[in-house]
Write a structure and sequence with these properties.
globular; single chain; 36% helix; alpha+beta; Aspartate Aminotransferase, domain 1; six-stranded antiparallel sheet; 110 residues
C-alpha cells in the first residue's frame, strides 16, 4: 500500500475522533491541507512518499534505530527531532503510531 493510501486509511480511522480535524476536503493545495490536526496542532501528515507523525523525540529515535522510520526534514537543514517519516508500513501499524502521535500532541496542549 502506498503512502497516500495509508494516509487516507488514517484519515478514515481518526477523522471522527473528538477534537481531530481532518484534511481540508475542498482539495485546495495550501499548508495544512494534507494533515490531521488536534487542537490546531498537526500530528500526522502526508509527505510525498511517506506518512509523517509527530512523536516524542525518544520514540522517534527508537523508530529510527529499529529501521521503521527515517528522519523527517523540510529540506532546509537538520531533521526535526519530534517527527518521523514512515515510507513503508501497514495500516494497523500506522494507526497504532498515529494514535500515539495524537495522544502526544494532546498531552502538549495548554
Amino acid at each position: 500500500m502506498d503512502a497516500p493510501d495509508r494516509f487516507a486509511a488514517l484519515v478514515d480511522a481518526l477523522a471522527t475522533d473528538p477534537g481531530v480535524t481532518p484534511p481540508d476536503a475542498d482539495g485546495a493545495r495550501r499548508f495544512g491541507s494534507g494533515t490531521l490536526r488536534a487542537g490546531g496542532s498537526i500530528f500526522a501528515m502526508l509527505a510525498v512518499d511517506a506518512v509523517v507523525l509527530k512523536l516524542p523525540s525518544d520514540r522517534v529515535a527508537a523508530l529510527l534505530a529499529d529501521g521503521a522510520g527515517r528522519p523527517f526534514s523540510s529540506g532546509k537543514g537538520q531533521p526535526y527531532r519530534e517527527w518521523v517519516a514512515l515510507p513503508d508500513g501497514d495500516p494497523a501499524t500506522d494507526l497504532a503510531l498515529a494514535r500515539e502521535a495524537l495522544a502526544f500532541v494532546r498531552s502538549r496542549r495548554r
